[in-house]
Amino acid sequence: MPERIKDWGLAPDLGQCRLCGSSAGQRYFWAEVYAGSGQALRRCGYCAGVYLAPGFTDAGLTRFYQGPYRRLFPAEVPWRDKARFFAWRGDRDIARQRLGLIEPALAAGARLFELGSGFGAFLGQAGRSRPDLALVASEPDSAHRGELLDGAPVRFVDNLPAVQPASVDAVVAFHVLEHLPDPLGFFQQAGEALREGGQLWVEVPDLMAAWNTRLFVHPAHLSYFCADALRRLAEASGLQVISCGQHPLAALEGTLWLHARRPERLAETPVRAAAQATVVAVDHWIERVGWGLRDRLKNFGKRRVLGLLGAGLVGELQRWRQYRARLRQERTP
Ligand SMILES: [Zn+2]
After folding, report:
1. Nearest of 48, 1, 34 to residue 283 by alpha carbon
2. Are 223 and 175 a contacting pair, CB within 8 Å?
């Protein structure tokens, strides 16, 4: 079995919503079982946000990504053959499709910032098809962030506040917001970095997608958004939301896509309350997810296999299966 993690570096639980800060009507669902971190899934009665509580301390979060994250998510970590790793993951193909959605909105010479650029596939694609763009990014994994840049000239900075206020034409963040301790803080920082008329594109997993096991919830994802809660969060930072809903790319089914714009005056407001119907819909969606004997056995089996084969080989098998599934999907007319 993989070694148990003794100290997760969790922060004190103040009973407040991670998204809006309210402590009204916070509903406990169940303990996180993917990694057994001691966190629990909660829903906010005010904003309908869903999140894990308690969160990590700063030191705990850093330690999590340096250690347990790689063992818990072996499919995300390169093992032996890097060319095969990236080919099976399909990063470049997704990056090309994402850029196709965004690029028409970018003027010649636009300055683009990517938060959490991962292996750099999107920046690499942007550098290839739009060499006029000025690319700035932040990515804490400095050992791997250059893997898919393909020579694109990118200036890496520590985070969004490190760029000059009102100096950026576009901010993008793909599958990053759900990892952050403070998602509203991200929208506020993006608003400050964008110049008037600058645009923001965000991609996060959809809480209302067809997940059906508690293993959907794990400590790498601290927040879980429905489209409505995501929209109200962005609006509270003063950004104008142009659209927020199902992702337009078929390959990213089960993902939300938010597009927003910075108005002339950036006025922050409190997060608007959710309609009662939204809170009820979120509750129903989570209540339908059980945790029966089959789920428990599957979780136990997964941990056994990880312990026997090691994270590298298990990750390779997972990527291969996903790759095969994608090929089958592409062949289906
Ligand atoms: Zn809330």
Report:
1. 48
2. no
C-alpha of residue 272 to centroid of ligand 1, in Å: 9
**Greatest CA separation found in the chain?**
57
* CA 220–ligand 1 middle distance (angstroms): 19
Q: pLDDT band for position 307 (50/70/90)?
A: confident
> 84 CA to middle of ligand 1, Å?
42
- Percent of the chain past pLDDT 70, that is, above it, reads 98
pLDDT digits (tens, 9 = 90+) for 55-84: 999 999 988 888 788 778 877 777 778 888
Q: Is the residue at 69 inside a domain?
A: no
| pTM for the predicted model, two decimal places | 0.92
Cα of 207 from ligand 1 centre, angstroms: 15
- Say which CATH number the domain at 200 has: 3.40.50.150
Residues 6+ apart with CB under 8 A from 31: 38, 39, 40, 41
118 within some domain = yes
CA of 305 to the centre of ligand 1 (A): 38
Predicted confidence (pLDDT) at residue 4 exceeds the cutoff of 70: no
- Number of separate domains in the chain: 1
Predicted local distance difference test score (pLDDT) of residue 328: 85
Q: How far is the CA of 183 from the centre of ligand 1 (A)?
A: 11
